[in-house]
Amino acid sequence: MAEHHELTHASNYSAYVTINDAKVPVYKVVDKPDLRKTTCYIEAVTGAEFKVHYRDASSFSSTDWAAWVHIDGKSMRGSTFRKDGAFHSAPADDPRRVANWSGRSSGPGQEQPFMFSAPTLTDDVATAVNDENIIKNLATIQVKMHRGTSGKPVASHYTQATETVLHEKAKKAMVSHTAKLGAAKPCKPRSCTAFHYIDPTDAPYWTFEFRYLSRVLLELQGHVEAEPTPSPSASPPPAAAVKKEKHAASASAKGKGKRETITIDSDDSDVGDGDVEGEDSKAELKRLRERIAKIEGEDEGAGASGSAGGERKKVKREKVVVKEEKGKDGKVVYVLD
Predict the structure, then answer these.
(1) Closest Cα partner for 65 from 5, 6, 15?
(2) Residue 66: in which H helix or E strand, if any?
(3) Which residue in 94, 92, 115, 112 sits closest to 104, CA to CA?
(4) pLDDT of residue 305 exceeding 90
(5) pLDDT, tens digit (0-9, with 9 covering 90-100), for 141-186
(6) Rounded distance, CA 89 to CA 60, Å?
(7) CA 117, CA 138: separation in Å to the nearest integer?
(8) Are 91 and 176 in contact (CB under 8 A)?
(9) Is the pLDDT of residue 266 over 90?
(10) What DSSP element (H or E) covers 304?
(11) How far apart are CA 57 and CA 9, in angstroms?
(12) Mean pLDDT score of the chain, rounded to an integer?
């Protein structure tokens, strides 16, 4: 499934969040016309600074617009778009069409960047935040659109932002992050304009809402699919081991079922069922044993000469069994198994 990175409304208006100037993917996008909002989920990364963006791609507007960014229920920054603004005739990706908010103004030419952070917790009820609007909108980034009329430029005013401290019970509410303000940085000074609202500040025309959570909670709550874990593949056996295994199998196949038969003429010997009697038989049996010893010696020699570097290779010695059988022509047959 293709990733989406922006929330849109009526094809002309959109909002998105970036980290390191890269758009953050959005998940579980839902339009809620009855609430006049579009919601989604994004991944929060601890310690990462983020920016919020709003785009007006309309070619015409009958009214001026104001767009405000609210984080964790607190108003942070805003921008206005005039209905007679030159941006209406500009391309959709023209920078004049986009409002960019990277932090909260803390003084002339100064701003504190937005950043994701682990929540600050306390067990003190008096210290923990109790503002209903903040609690209700924890872990959200909202861009609110308002219709109205732009007025004259006004003097800028700055207020000190306070940190949101949560009660420890917030852990049960599955809050993995909150947004904080980093150390003040220099920024380009901005002018302020008065704005007369058609849509009340507490009832915007439309709201884009990004609900942020850790990757773990996004997966646990089913908002995103779990990232696949690569399964460890079985390591192939070393080449030397494979060669040794093949050699052993080959040798086993060659030796399997190998029998050597020595025939002794029984005209000069008395042979009973499985017994050997008489001097000639004893002599022949002695020669047979010597032959067996010679065969075993050749096997060991072959194993030694086949080893690398002249090192003697261990060869498993097979037990040689001598069986005495009587042929159809009356001759005694010794079979080596």
Answers:
(1) 15
(2) strand 64-71
(3) 112
(4) no
(5) 999 999 999 999 998 888 888 889 998 877 667 889 999 999 999 9
(6) 9
(7) 13
(8) no
(9) no
(10) helix 279-305
(11) 11
(12) 79
Number of H helices, E strands in the chain: 4, 21
- Give the pLDDT of residue 285: 62
- DSSP symbols for 189-249: ---EEEEEESS-TTS-SEEEEEEEE-HHHHHHTTSSPPPPPPPPPPPPPPHHHHHHHHHHH
Q: What DSSP designation does 11 have?
A: T
Return the higher-pLDDT residue of 187 and 249: 187
CA dihedral 276, 282, 285, 290 (to 10 degrees): 160
Please name which of 201, 155, 159, 210 lies closest in space to residue 181, comparing C-alpha atoms.
Answer: 159
pLDDT > 50? residue 271: no
Cα 204 from Cα 32, distance rounded (Å): 14
Q: Is 173 helix (H, G, I), strand (E, B) or coil?
A: helix
Give the predicted TM-score (pTM) of the model: 0.68
| Three-state DSSP class for residue 38 | strand
